[in-house]
Amino acid sequence: MAELFEMLRDAAPVMLTGAGYTVIFAMAAMVGGLAIGFPVAVMRMSTLAIVRWPASLYVSMMRGTPLLVQIFVIYYGLPSIGIEFDPVTAGVLALSLNSGAYLSESLRGAIQSISQGQWRASFSLGLGYWQTLHHIVMPQALRVAVPSMSNTLISLIKDTSLVSVITVTELMLATKEVIATTFQPLPLYIAAAVIYWCLSLAFEALQRKAERRLNRAH
């Protein structure tokens, strides 16, 4: 038992460094996903089919194919047509594109939950579509969207483990590197699972805090 604790203590710096990279990748992918998801959500609500269909196709494709396959397409497939990314960029791009599809649906549902009466009242006051969306609708929609958006972020924390297949350093790859030198997979994989769990709990706490803050006026 003492040897086990000593091994975990020696492995902790490497694994915690990997956990730090995991959080960075997840946050970067969340920002990228929001940058993609918001315009896609707006496109999905358009009355113009030529605007709505490409967004619907993107969402369907990202949600209907495994993230691992998307990573392989971006990192291993695109170089065959002259588009090449380094592992970190490929990993963040794949995570952003994947999360963007889910975030777009969260935002679209939240925006559509705001009554049409508020849109009409805003238009009657002389505000345009984008002004109404920015000043009236989105502040209310964000309150509705926070739980599902937080769930996406927590999923991203776990999904970052998949980018280890393209040699991106994060928690899972760091764990595999330690296992390669210690030959003790079970305790190290359990330790990695505990770290993922702790990260998820931390973001769940942030989610509850954000919900309380946004619900103060309600």
TrEMBL record:
Q: Which SUPFAM superfamilies match?
A: MetI-like
Chief site of localization: membrane
Q: Name one Pfam family in it.
A: BPD_transp_1
> Where are the membrane-spanning stretches?
20-43, 55-78, 186-206
Q: Where in the cell is it found?
A: Cell inner membrane; Cell membrane
Give the keywords, sorted. Answer: Amino-acid transport, Cell membrane, Membrane, Transmembrane, Transmembrane helix, Transport
What range(s) does the ABC transmembrane type-1 domain occupy?
19-207
Key word Transmembrane present: yes
Q: Which InterPro entries match?
A: AA_ABC_transptr_permease_3TM (IPR010065), ArtM/GltK/GlnP/TcyL/YhdX-like (IPR043429), MetI-like (IPR000515), MetI-like_sf (IPR035906)
* CDD domains linked to this entry: TM_PBP2 (cd06261)
What PROSITE patterns would the database entry show? ABC_TM1 (PS50928)
Topology relative to the membrane, per the entry?
Answer: Multi-pass membrane protein
Q: What is stated as this protein's family in its record? A: Belongs to the binding-protein-dependent transport system permease family. HisMQ subfamily.
Q: Which NCBIfam families match?
A: HEQRo_perm_3TM (TIGR01726)
Protein name per its UniProtKB record: Amino acid ABC transporter permease
Q: What organism is this sequence from?
A: Massilia soli
